[in-house]
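Please complete every field before forwarding. Incomplete forms are returned to the sender.

SECTION A: IDENTIFIERS
Entry label: holo-725
Bound molecule: adenosine-5'-triphosphate
Molecule representation: SMILES string

SECTION B: INPUTS
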Amino acid sequence: MPVVADILIPLALDTAYSYAVPAGLDLAEGDIVQVPLGPRETIGVVWGLDERASGGNLRPVTGRVEAPPLSDALRKLVDWLARYTLAPKGSALAMALRLPDETARNEAPRIGVRTSGKPPARQTAARSKVMAAAADGAVRGKSALAKEAGVSLSVVDGLIDDGALETVALMPEPVALPPDPDHPRVPLSDAQADAAHALIGNAPSPTEVAAGETILLEGVTGSGKTEVYFEAVAECVRRGRQALVLMPEIALTAQFLDRFAGRFGVRPATWHSGVGGKRRERLRAGVAAGEVSVVVGARSALFLPFRNLGLIVVDEEHETAYKQEDGVHYHARDMAVVRGKIEGCPVVLASATPSIESRVNAQSGRYRHVALPGRFGGRPLPDIAAIDMRLDKPERGRFLSPPMVNAVKATLAAGDQALLFLNRRGYAPLTLCRACGHRYQCRNCSTWLVEHRFRRALVCHQCGYAERKPEACTECGAFDHLTPCGPGVERIAEEVTALFPEQRIVVLSSDFPGGAERLRQELETVAAGDCDIVIGTQLVAKGHNFPHLTLVGVLDADIGLTSGDPRAAERTFQLLQQVTGRAGRGERPGRALVQTYQPEHPVIAALLSGDADRFYEEEIWAREAAGLPPFGRLAALIVSAEEREKAEAHGQALARVADPPAGVSVLGPAEAPLALVRGRWRFRLLVKTERGIDVQSYLRDWLARGPKPRGNLKVAIDVDPQSFL
Ligand SMILES: Nc1ncnc2c1ncn2[C@@H]1O[C@H](COP(=O)(O)OP(=O)(O)OP(=O)(O)O)[C@@H](O)[C@H]1O
Ligand SMILES: [Zn+2]
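SECTION C: PREDICTED COMPLEX
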């Protein structure tokens, strides 16, 4: 029997701690245990066991916790995650071991009723109906009983008060009903059937499934990728294994869940930040027991304890939402590929606009490439045309150019829906005093405050700081001189309401009250055709299906192009391709109009030509020439502190000992584009290496040589950074 256990604790600690195993406690690796840590008790996971070591003066493990142990695969994933991201191993474990969340609201217990044996004190016709329905003595839900008896719920409540019915606690509803892979479904098109076949292969037995293979499923917008990967999910379920479908959080709409139900007969189990309390725990337990066969979830679902994982699908694999930008800086798409390798199961990356990384991997043969070149049902892709804003100027103080206004008019006249897209929240991105020139800036961050008329406030989009918009300039005291500069979606909504006062307009922006739930509802409204004009930020661009939408108007195609970010071209192309791809997905063909000041810019030109391959070729070539990912590697260090000098000095001290070997260069420290965030000054160092270099080892050695962060100073490590702000 082992006498010493190495316990990894889900806190920012880099190593497991040794504890003595008390006699009679039979532990195995992966077991979840309770251990003393300093003055308190905490939870940890058995990471290693040692038979020979002496447990002499070690503190003993308190006991085992009744919870499914962490599988070998999941422990390997945690080790991998920590090694790759350089996050403390305990922080990586915390991702896989979300402790029961006591702050989350508990599920309301389900209550059933049955006859108590005591006749009602007072009898009415309605009451007799209920008593007759309940006469068999079986337990029923309250509303089920009322429905069966054809009476209102208050009659049932009355009988409970009366004592003729008694209440009993019911078993909680199952977290998910089993999906039926052979549920009757719509037939696939030939192209879809071919693609589905390519995903699944002919493998006659589960052992022949290509182990750990990664497949890029690339299909233009509206090509029907979802139905194709559903076939892979179905095959996985048929083989008795579990499937995970990852989606950007907001894409988890009722519409998607209904589509799943259309294919599998039931809605899938879902995992996202809105799933709380007991339900979360039960879902984890069901997944660990292998009872839940399909989970559709946001990125954190990747760390669920699947017992028998047979497939991972990453939908919209190019989405930046898959990158976690705080705590453990990991990319869920990349970790999905790692988990697939560890579990020996295939991983399907689906997108209409794949990341450059995945495209390159598909071209080099590392990933298998399965393509759907046309839209489902032979529908045409939208026609995309530019509006040159230098020629077709909007009226003064307006943002829609005359051709855009006319196109919206024509669309509405035809009874169709129009979407106006602007990737800017709020009313105006800058507020300026015309009397003294003062610009309103955040007191904690180096950002302009964004006016939100809806909230009647000036708001910082970095830290959330908000102040009331003043009546007079706070600097010079002048009245009526504060001017909003530039548009956000709220300002567009104002303009559109003035132009089309009779139309039903929906504005979709992530900052509106009501959160993700309300947004999901609004998206349903749009999909159902119960609105005429949609005005939205990037969240309307993502994976939604709006069958009534035939016009997409991009109000400022140039926004993302000047950011200086190495991925600016890729991001802009993806976003514009996605948003224009919302048009014409239903019966009627769609078109897109793109307002731009630089129609000849390569990204805009590629978009207009409809030639995505041309864009990919040029961008891949440019990345290769510059040694940028995936042809070289990047990692960022972000040094931050409450005092500017401290952060800068620490960054310089790190740079002095960087000592980069051949094939590695270190840039910086440079003041970050967002130099001040939440009261912390930020400096960035960028490591650029050739492709074959082990950037993690280099970073580890470098940081070990460098000064240790003290006090409020922090050094965040971001391997494969997506954001350069
Ligand atoms: N076999 C089929 N039979 C009937 N309708 C289908 C079939 N396959 C797809 N569709 C319909 O075609 C439309 C587009 O499908 P889907 O949303 O899967 O496309 P997609 O490739 O995921 O697009 P995007 O990348 O733009 O989100 C949907 O309305 C879907 O219901
Ligand atoms: Zn701020």
